[in-house]
From TrEMBL, chain A:
Cytoplasm keyword on record: no
Keywords: ATP-binding, Nodulation, Nucleotide-binding, Transport
Organism superkingdom: Bacteria
Cross-referenced Pfam families: ABC_tran
Keyword Transport: yes
UniProt-recorded Gene Ontology molecular function terms: ATP binding
Sequence similarity: Belongs to the ABC transporter superfamily.
Domain ABC transporter positions: 2-252
UniProt-recorded name of the protein: ABC transporter ATP-binding protein
From TrEMBL, chain B:
Transmembrane segments: 20-42, 237-261, 273-304, 316-337, 365-390
Bilayer topology term: Multi-pass membrane protein
Keyword Membrane: yes
ABC-2 type transporter transmembrane domain span: 17-384
Leader peptide range in chain numbering: none
Main location: membrane
Protein species of origin: Pseudobowmanella zhangzhouensis
Protein name (record): ABC transporter permease
Location of the protein in the cell: Membrane
Lineage: Bacteria, Pseudomonadati, Pseudomonadota, Gammaproteobacteria, Alteromonadales
Length: 264, 398
């Protein structure tokens, strides 16, 4: 069970004069600080997949970075199976598998070495790493390129290795930041199948996306963030019901309400 | 920490750019550059010395000895006839002649009556030409002969002749032993070379381990691994420091090796004798002094690298760092700056001065403890800063 309550995070603006007109008009800019996340709350139970939606700059990545302990929250609470992430980040890191928005790999290491390195960082033994890599290679269809240097990988190959790297330690929670962005149809299908598999194993998955078809196919819950605040947090069915089953319309309707609320 | 160190080294050793800067450059390029300079300089000197020089002589009749001496060396000099009123500068610039000797009408070898004599040599002295030296050999022979004749006319004994040639002289009685002499000459350059090599060897991996992680997008994943931040920093810090020391050691070893090869055994005995004079304990102490210095470099480089947004930005910051490293070493090379008083406490300058003293064999070993401790304290402080820097979100996510 993952519970996120009233999360808030602000950043100091290095040079306010360099901000664009649009950025200066953003209500989240207050003095020298930009309140990227103002009040975000949602929860995800065992075996659930939660889709995190929102326009660009809504605060999704900041939220996921706080969840993964890369950033510290200014306020709020993140609980993973009873452990406070913000108070015990080291313990939380062992429980979380995080895939960031950038598919960063060590180019001079092979795919296998990239995955193994993070296995070592998580304290796995050589035997555990080897068997886990074999398992993941089968699941993500990576056998053909696993022992090649990552510098020559396609985007799809990189993303598969990145996902394997994120879950090498069999985390209790998997957080994926736009995992299918830039992938071709085949690679996207592999990633989707993998998320489905995690779900069937009872591992909660939180992933941000702009693809509503992925939400429809995979998600049990939907959370929409806009202007750094949670605007919607409920089941996919409830989300779909907002516009008679048309998720695209549902999304726009949530955003429109959000803007009305913002103006008001 | 060692896991990070091992992984970083595995990556570094697979990086052609790092291998080039850390191993190939010091092993091949530096010796090649030095070798090429020596080769071309030696050839230029040889050419200048063996070239047949075209010359003109005005007033040859006033000194038959000189004109005859030039004529007697056809493999070295070739006479060209010119108009006595010609423009000498034009003739030399258009390479009609290499030099023109002008012997005045009043020239005579009776210096006891006429005083010292002057012969004008017109030449283009820009560049390597050896004209002055080669003509002066002939004029000096005549000068020595005139001197001997004059002494003979005066009826002076050999002692009197010596006394007149050098009535009062200062005899150098150097109490410094050979090690101190050599150490003074070489010891100052040693830290200059080693510091720069350590810094240069550490720069490429430092840029890769900080800014490179940001640019590749691997930093965020690394930061959320269950590895304490200080271990992460220490792993990277050790990699950079080790790379710096390795690069310096490879360079010094390769310079020594290629120096022996290029000089074809010349001066080996002298170098070997000098090296034998320096005790192994001094070499160990020099290496020990280098450890906190490299630690300072590694901590500063890693801090700059992690602050930078990109590899390119990191390299530009690091380029500026060379000035800050060179300055204290240059101060140590300045005459009058010695390992005493406040200089003992000036970072890097004190280590450079201590290395010089160790090579000379005049080190006050008690002062060494203070220098090592103070440098180590600075290094530890900088490592602590680096760890603090690695915990700042505005640095990591700029």
């Amino acid at each position: 069970m993952i519970e996120i309550k009233h999360l808030a995070k602000k950043f100091a603006v290095e040079n306010p004069k360099k901000l664009s007109e649009q950025e200066r008009k953003d209500p989240r800019l207050q003095g020298r600080f930009f309140h990227s996340v103002k009040d975000v709350s949602f929860s995800c139970k065992q075996g659930e997949v939660l889709g995190l939606l929102g326009p660009n700059g809504a605060g999704k990545t900041t939220t996921l970075r706080i969840l993964s302990t890369a950033l510290k929250a200014d306020a709020g609470q993140v609980m993973i199976n009873g452990h406070n992430v913000l108070e015990n980040p080291l313990i939380a890191r062992k429980k979380i598998g995080f895939l960031s928005g950038t598919t960063g790999l060590y180019g001079r290491l092979t795919g296998r070495e990239n995955i193994a390195y993070f296995g070592q960082l998580h304290g796995l033994t050589a035997g555990e790493i080897a068997s886990r890599i074999d398992e993941l290679a089968n699941l993500l269809d990576m056998q053909s390129f696993l022992d090649r240097r990552a510098e020559n990988f396609s985007t799809g190959m990189k993303q598969k290795v990145s996902i394997a790297r994120a879950v090498i330690h069999q985390p209790e929670l998997v957080v994926l930041d736009e995992p299918t962005t830039g992938l071709d149809i085949m690679a996207t299908a592999t990633v989707m199948e993998f998320i489905q598999r995690l779900k069937s194993q009872g591992t909660p998955v939180i992933f941000s996306t702009h693809h509503l078809d992925e939400v429809q196919e995979l998600c049990d819950r939907v959370t929409v963030i806009d202007q750094g605040e949670t605007r919607f947090d409920d089941t996919v069915e409830a989300f779909s019901a907002l516009a008679d089953g048309k998720l695209h319309q549902s999304f726009l309707s949530v955003l429109n309400q959000s803007q009305v609320k913002g103006v008001a | 920490m060692w896991m990070i160190f091992r992984k970083e080294w595995k990556e570094l050793l697979r990086d052609r750019k790092t291998l080039f800067f850390m191993i190939a450059l010091p092993m091949l390029l530096f010796p090649l550059i030095f070798g090429a300079i020596i080769f071309f300089t030696a050839n230029a000197v040889k050419d200048a010395e063996s070239k047949v020089l075209n010359y003109a002589i005005v007033g040859a009749e006033y000194s038959t000895q000189i004109s005859q001496a030039l004529a007697d060396a056809p493999d070295k000099f070739k006479r060209i006839e010119i108009d006595a009123n010609a423009d000498y500068a034009v003739l030399i610039k258009d390479k009609t002649v290499d030099f023109i000797l002008v012997i005045p009408a009043e020239f005579g070898t009776n210096v006891l009556d006429n005083g010292p004599q002057k012969i004008a040599l017109y030449l283009n002295d820009a560049g390597l030409n050896m004209v002055y030296r080669r003509v002066n050999e002939i004029v000096s022979d005549l000068s020595d002969q005139v001197q001997q004749d004059s002494f003979a006319r005066l009826g002076l004994s050999e002692t009197q002749q010596q006394g007149l040639l050098e009535p009062v002289s200062l005899e150098r009685k150097n109490v410094a032993d050979e090690r101190e002499n050599w150490g003074e000459k070489i010891g100052g350059m040693l830290p200059y070379m080693i510091f720069i090599l350590c810094l240069q060897g550490a720069m490429a991996p430092a840029a890769d381990l900080g800014a490179g992680e940001k640019e590749r997008g691997t930093l965020e994943t690394l930061l959320i691994s269950p590895m304490e931040r200080y271990k992460l920093v220490m792993g990277k810090f050790l990699t950079i420091g080790f790379a710096g020391v390795t690069s310096a050691l490879i360079t010094v070893a390769s310079l020594a090796l290629w120096g022996l090869v290029l000089s074809q055994g010349l001066a080996i005995a002298k170098v070997a004798a000098f090296m034998a004079m320096i005790g192994w304990i001094d070499f160990v102490l020099i290496f020990l002094m280098l450890i906190p210095v490299v630690a300072i470099f590694a901590a500063v480089l890693l801090s700059l690298s992690i602050y930078a947004r990109s590899f390119k930005e990191a390299q530009s910051y690091m380029g500026s760092l060379i000035i800050f490293v060179l300055l204290p070493v240059i101060i140590a090379l300045t005459p009058g700056v010695k390992l005493e008083g406040h200089w003992v406490w000036v970072p890097l300058t004190n280590v450079a001065l201590a290395m010089k003293e160790l090579v000379k064999g005049t080190m006050d070993y008690f002062a060494l403890i203070g220098i090592f401790t103070s440098t180590a304290v600075i290094a530890v402080a900088l490592i602590a800063f680096c760890i603090h820097w690695f915990n700042k979100e505005k640095v990591l996510f700029r």
